[in-house]
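Task card 7
Instruction: Convert sequence to structure tokens.
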Amino acid sequence: MIRQATDTDRPEMLRMARDFIAASGLDLSFHAAYVSQSIAGQIAAPDRLALVLELDGTLRGMLCAAHSQSPLAPVRVATELVFWIDPMARGPWAANMIQRYETWARAECCQLISMAAIGGRGADRLYQRVGYQPAERHFMKVL
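Output:
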């Protein structure tokens, strides 16, 4: 089941955020208190999206997003902040979570929606399969 996250989901969302950071391949330290506070803000903010994937009573995925006005055009843009599904639970749920994200973005009057990918090209194929096109690639360096 895909549903809105609640404050009781924070411990499992924190675990998934830790796994997401580890999978990114970047040498970032995990700061549990900071991430927990960020998750709490994401859940509480009326203009943010915090979805979780619950399978058999256990959280296995999350998708968090925000929207803002583009600095380059007079359009509202929805931006995925974190999208994670535990490796053993990946499959059709990813497209379903993206669909829920798109429904939210439309309700928020967004004209553009974006997804990001870490690691390999699996997410790229998923995003293209559900109608996204490559627009730019981000490169990161830990200083």
